[in-house]
Amino acid sequence: MAQIHIAEDARQVSEDLAKWLGSYIEEVLSKKDRFTFVLSGGSTPKLLYTLLAAKPYSESISWEKIHFFWGDERAVPFEDSRNNAKMAYDELLDKVGAKAENIHVMQTDVSAEESAAAYEKILKQYFDGEETTFDFVLLGMGDDGHTLSLFPGTSVIHEKDAWATSFFLPAQDMYRITLTAPVVNHAACVAFLAVGSGKAETLKHVLEGEFQPDTYPSQVIKPSKGELHWFIDEAAASALTA
Ligand SMILES: O=C(O)[C@H](O)[C@@H](O)[C@H](O)[C@H](O)COP(=O)(O)O
């Protein structure tokens, strides 16, 4: 069952998530020596990353023990403003003590197919045979209900085997590289961060409507063993009935 955290506005949601995440990371690192963290792209996480890169989190989190991954990537050069890895470096990774060898970007200087295959190999090296995959997966949700690069009507929504894949997205005239539901649904903890009235109607369907993953791909995120959290603001929550 998803745990839903509602705050007044986008800043408060990000502050609440930063605080919650700081405690969660500390708890996990009290039991083991690495924390695997999937970063999200899009615009919503920027404020969260900025908060994490500043005090107290810049000093309280053991950044050197965190291994970073991405949920998806647009197959554009790193320097392109649409590149998810660049946003995370600019807002967070260039500001905290993460180790370069622990940061695993989805390469965009090779074909999307090669990038996905290389990512699959890295993920298998980290998690093959493990009880769960990532310690934490941060996800966004588009106004259309997509998450990662699982867009409505795409076959990748139903991928059952690959942990990372790629495909051409005609609507954006670009290739995308993305994690798939299987590897995310085996994570220890998944948290959506979604804000704004533009997501309200979609969020109502995702959380309260029938299971229609081709229309609302975010519905396929259902951790089998792990926790599922939604960090949302009042505007995004405005159509919820529960
Ligand atoms: O590459 C991407 O676009 C993201 O990974 C994507 O899944 C994002 O999380 C949603 O599109 C929400 O984006 P916003 O946060 O900008 O609404």
Please, could you describe this protein's structure?
The structure is a single chain. This protein has 242 residues and is of the alpha/beta class. The protein has one domain (3-233): Rossmann fold. Helix content is 29%, strand content 19%. The chain has seven helices and nine strands. The protein has a six-stranded parallel beta sheet with strand order 1-9-8-5-2-3, with helices on one face. A hairpin with a 4-residue loop joins strand 6 and strand 7. Helix 1 crosses helix 2 (45-52) and helix 2 (45-52) runs parallel beside helix 4. The chain is globular. The structure holds 6-phosphogluconic acid. 6-phosphogluconic acid binds next to strand 4.
The CATH topology assignment is Rossmann fold
Largest sheet: 6 strands, parallel
Structural class based on helices, strands and sheet pairing? alpha/beta
Terminal CA distance:
13 Å
Total beta strands: 9
Q: List SSEs in N-to-C order.
A: EHEHHEEHHEEEHEHE
Small-molecule binders here are: 6-phosphogluconic acid
Morphology call: globular
Count the DSSP helices: 7
The Cα radius of gyration reads 17 Å
Strand percentage:
15-25%
Judging by the overall fold, what is the CATH architecture?
3-Layer(aba) Sandwich
Widest sheet: strand ordering: 1-9-8-5-2-3
Number of domains: 1
Question: Low-confidence parts, pLDDT < 50 over ≥5 residues?
Answer: none
Can you identify the CATH class? Alpha Beta
Overall mean pLDDT stands at 97
Helicity range: 25-40%
Pathway: Carbohydrate degradation; pentose phosphate pathway; D-ribulose 5-phosphate from D-glucose 6-phosphate (oxidative stage): step 2/3
EC number: 3.1.1.31
Protein name: 6-phosphogluconolactonase
Catalytic activity: 6-phospho-D-glucono-1,5-lactone + H2O = 6-phospho-D-gluconate + H(+)
